[in-house]
Model the fold of this input.
Amino acid sequence: MLRAMSLGDSIEACARVHYPVDWSCKAAGELAPHLSSIDAALIAIDLAELYVSHGERFDGDARRRSWISELALTAGSRPTDVRTAFPCSLHAAEGGSRENGHFRTRFDGRIGSIRVRLEIEHDVALPPLPQTGRTVVDASVLGTDGSRYFSTGYRNRRHTISELLVDVERRAAAASLMVSGDTCRSDTGLGGAYQPTVSVIEIIVSLAQLAQVVLYQADDLPRQHSNTLWMRAIWLTAHTPSHPLNAPIPIRVGTRRWDQVQMDSRTWRLAEFYGSLPGVDVGARLAHALPERVSLPELDRVAP
Done:
């Protein structure tokens, strides 16, 4: 939920996210809810879409033809507690470089404690904002929740990972991703012209799931005895707006870095992954606390 939005050179808002009580149950009990990378991405996309839509600078068709070409999220030093509202802001660098007849607008900012970089590609120039100072904007200009994938449409999809192959020695995994459910063909929001297509949500979720499998198997750690997976950073570059869903999608992850460090009297696994889906390059830095019972070798690194 977004509220009290204002817009000038940047767009600012307060957000509130509601998670179920049992959002993350482990053997040690329930964990306090904090802002997930997926929700931070969704909020950032909402703010960017509001920015380009304000004052009818983009009409509905131009907004539907615009798409996310880059997204990067970097966690802060502390997680964002979602039990209270938290601040969000994005600053836009307008007049982005024109490539192949298209334009790009870049946004940098924070969603809670998570740093965000987002780049939108569009086929019409983004007119400058009127010089009227800061203006309160209403999220309703984006349309009803059910009309946009990045609002609530993503909840109507099902993701199935099959044909999973894990190479524990090389700390890598490959699988097939099948996305089913609502195809969002009538999507009125950002990227709607290319639906049905794989979105940044499917990409983040599938990468995180493969990376989790590698982490837990390489550390010989059952998931129910693990600590919450900390997404320290994730970044992706899309080379095309359309990634069809009419067939299984091959996905893979490999490991660039595999360390363990001592923090707050605990041993932490730090790992950096790289991955790909057709037309998309992805990377992520993940961490989780290791139980005291796990015996691990000294610091080691894996070459790319």
About this structure: Helices lie at 37-53, 60-65, 200-218. Confidence is low (pLDDT under 50) at residues 294-304.
